[in-house]
Amino acid sequence: MTAELMVHADGVEKRFGHLHVLKGIDMSVARGEVACLLGPSGSGKSTFLRCINHLEKVSAGRLTVDGELVGYEERKGKLYELSDRKICAKRAEIGMVFQRFNLFPHMTALENVMIGPRTVLRRDRAVTETQALALLDRVGLAEKASSYPSQLSGGQQQRVAIARALCMEPKLLLFDEPTSALDPELVGEVLAVMQSLAEDGMTMVVVTHEIGFAREVADTAYFMDGGVVLESGDPKVVLNQPTHPRLRDFLSKVL
Amino acid sequence: MTTPSSPQTSKDAADSIESAASRAVHVEAVPLRHYGRWISAAVLMVLFVMFLHTLVSHIDRNGVHNDQRFQWSTVGKYLFDPSVIHGALVTLELTGAAMAIGVLFGIVLATMRLSTNRQLRYVSWLYLWFFRGTPVYVQLIFWSNLAWLYPTLSLGVPFGPSFWQISTNEYVTNLFLVALVGLALNEAAYMAEIVRAGIIAVDAGQLEAAQALGMRRVQSLRRIVLPQAMRVIVPPTGNETISMLKTTSLVGAALGGGGELYRSIQNIYNVNYLVPPLLITGCCWYLAMTSVLSVGQFYVERYYGRGVGTSAPPTLLQTLRKSFGRSPHVEAAPVGRP
């Protein structure tokens, strides 16, 4: 059953000391599906996203990506912690885009896109460069290849960050509020790139406050609050006819 | 998003700034007189001339008349003396080698200090505690007496037979080597803290982005974190290099040799007793070398500053022109009188 699922969460919990951030998340994201996580600040959306590529360690429950447990190996019914090497190898298959872009400021846009395949996958320079230039072209920044991040607008930086994630040829892309740090007029260009990725069949988990994007692009919407999923399903249903009063309240404030 | 009124308002604003400026040009006023500054300028001038006079004046010394106080001819005579030039070269070599080892070992110590491995953290802390906590002068003498404590160093089974061994005595007679070991190991402790400061100054998001790409810890440190940390690391490292160049002058006194610059100077004045002129000769060389190092530091900083501003960083000449030339702010100010 988990074979065709890209992400499967079963009662995932996360504690930071006494702080109980995730209180049992269940979620299934199929191959090619776009899932949007919505909810107020501090609801645990970003923490859950970071658990998926093991930037945070899950405290309880089972979390699998592409049928394999995150951070552990199961042998004869027993869990074994993974070595750094194996964790890194798994992360390399999952792309991540951050709220604050986190481009490497000492490298040009092209070098930012190339660094992953070059250092992690040990790809050939010429092949990677062709691929990276094609990706920069795809996000509309072919002419900015030799610019440093400080010479780019927020929207351009985020598009470079998406190209950087894509150059690793990931099977899953995670977006952590990709448009929250952008000027309102720059949000559209980033969402357009994400929408084209979704149309190409990329599996994506997107934490966002863009209700319109969730409604138009997502296959499933999850509304989280207080570390649990309160409501989930077809975004056109969930977001247009919310049943949970907390979601109704949230939507009335966001829209 | 441009409203029809906004070009109009900005034009109005420009007009009002312009008229304010033209009004300022026509204000007729007697400038404030700073009488105190005139007096202090005069006093400073007199003191400066008095000092200049001492540089060239002659004094009556021990009954010998008409002796030039600074003996500039002596300063000049020894400036390019072969032994002085050799000393300066040894000082440069010692500084370069000790800093190179110090920086590399410092990076290792800083990484250990920030490691998730507790033992590495403790070992690094202990090293820093000892080498920062004792005077480098004492450390130098200590290394030269290593043979007293450990006559031989060997590799083998602990408490068992040894396969390979050397006699320490053969090495401690090489004073350059002893000085290098002493200075480099001391420097590593200071560099470790400088490197650590640079690493923790880099935004945590950078390491996260590197991790998300699947980079190993060492890879992300070398490719992502350290290059950015260099912006913080380079200026204090320049300080350390200049400080090291001068600290080499301790070597002659601590080890009774080593051939560095100050020792060469000492060897000369121990014979002719012309101490102040020879000290000036030495200072000329130290100043010349530190000046060259400062220029080198400028270019290293420029290299690691790439990607920081929105335009290319200025060259050395542009920077000098900016700091010594008239600032554009002054040029733009109204002249005061028509």
What does the model show?
The complex is a heterodimer of chains A (255) and B (338). Chain A has helices at 45-52, 84-91, 109-119, 125-138, 154-166, 184-199, 211-217, 235-240, 245-254; strands at 5-16, 19-30, 34-38, 60-65, 68-69, 72-75, 78-81, 94-97, 172-176, 204-207, 220-225, 228-233. Chain A is an alpha/beta fold and 255 residues long. A six-stranded mixed β-sheet of chain A has the order 8-9-10-3-11-12, sandwiched between helices. A four-stranded antiparallel β-sheet of chain A has the order 2-1-4-5, with helices on one face. Chain A has a two-stranded antiparallel ribbon with strand order 6-7. In chain A, helix 3 (109-119) crosses helix 4 (125-138) and helix 4 crosses helix 5. The longest helix of chain A is centred in the C-terminal third of the chain and has 16 residues, at 184-199. Chain B is mainly alpha-helical. Chain B contains 16 helices and four strands. Chain B has helices at 5-25, 35-56, 72-79, 82-113, 118-133, 136-144, 146-149, 168-172, 175-201, 204-212, 217-247, 249-255, 261-272, 275-304, 316-324, 328-332; strands at 58-61, 64-68, 152-156, 162-167. In chain B, the strands form two sheets. In chain B, strands 1-2 form a two-stranded antiparallel sheet. Chain B has a two-stranded antiparallel ribbon with strand order 3-4. In chain B, a hairpin with a 5-residue loop joins strand 3 and strand 4. The longest helix of chain B has 32 residues, at 82-113. The A-B interface holds A 53, 55, 84-85, 88-96, 98, 100, 102-108, 115-116, 119-120, 148-151, 164-165, 168, 185 and B 1, 203, 205-206, 208-217, 219, 223-224, 227-228, 304, 306-310.
